[in-house]
Amino acid sequence: MTGPLSGPKLAGEVSNPLRTQDESNETWTRVAHTDAAGNPDAGGCAANRLPRIDQLEALYNANSGGKINGIQGWPVYLNYWSSTYQSATTWKLIALANGSEFANSNVSIYASCLASDNPVPAAITIEPVDPSLWYDGSDVHAVKVKKGDTLQLKVTVKDASGNPVPEAPFVLTRGDGYDRRGEKYTAQDGDDLQGIVTPVVIDGDRWPGPPLKWGRRPALTAPALLVLPARTPTAPHRD
């Protein structure tokens, strides 16, 4: 966790709250996600201070069973926003009363804020799970597998200091494939008569052939495991 967390703002601390909730003899501010993730004036957090879902999970584990209400006086009747994507248009939220997790986008609930900024993602690394698959030769640094094999890649998002950033959203682009003659080969999912293009599996989800982008549309969070079935050699894609 990056520093301590503060509880939701009281209605009296916000000039014009979207909604309020009476609980524990107090009136609390309720916020939409757009305000939770960067609008302190509406009762949300400053930029980069809305906690990730893993940080809220750690908070719950330290105060399980709704103890944060009895000990810290935080409200627990409504769920709490996180900054972690669940899908392209939804974010994860947690119930500090019992630890249950959900996803939503258009509700007004509670927001807890970090005392200091979460690290900002600065770089993405993609590397094979098996380092022995790296190939260096003829000015080429790439992963090499045989046709028919399955390649597992690990995606890690890092901050400016090189430290991994958990639950960080990223966009992955898969480009067009090229056959052994260097000619571009494009196929839609289910329309690959030559069996060249094969879906990528990302954390258990199947994604069809190129060109496609993954990330916030739909959302991926790091670290993620990619499984690439090897077909004919393909050239790497560069944006």
Structural commentary:
- The protein has helices at 33-36, 53-62, 67-72; strands spanning 5-6, 19-23, 26-30, 80-85, 91-94, 101-104, 113-114, 123-128, 134-137, 140-143, 150-158, 168-169, 172-174, 177-178, 184-185, 200-202, 205-207, 212-214, 221-222, 224-229.
- It has 239 residues and is mainly beta.
- It folds into two domains: 5-114, no CATH class; 123-229.
- A hairpin with a 5-residue loop joins β4 (80-85) and β5 (91-94).
- The longest helix is centred in the N-terminal third of the chain and has 10 residues, at 53-62.
Biggest sheet character: 5 strands, antiparallel
Number of DSSP helical runs: 3
Given the C-alpha coordinates, what overall shape results? elongated
Total number of β-strand segments? 20
Q: Major sheet: order of its strands?
A: 8-11-20-16-17
**Beta-strand percentage?**
25-35%
**Radius of gyration, rounded?**
22 Å
Q: What distance separates the N and C termini? A: 34 Å
Query: Structural class, from helix and strand content?
Result: mainly beta
| Structural domain tally | 2
Uncertain segments are 209-220, 226-239
Helical fraction: under 10%
Q: What is the element string, with H for helices and E for strands?
A: EEEHHHEEEEEEEEEEEEEEEEE
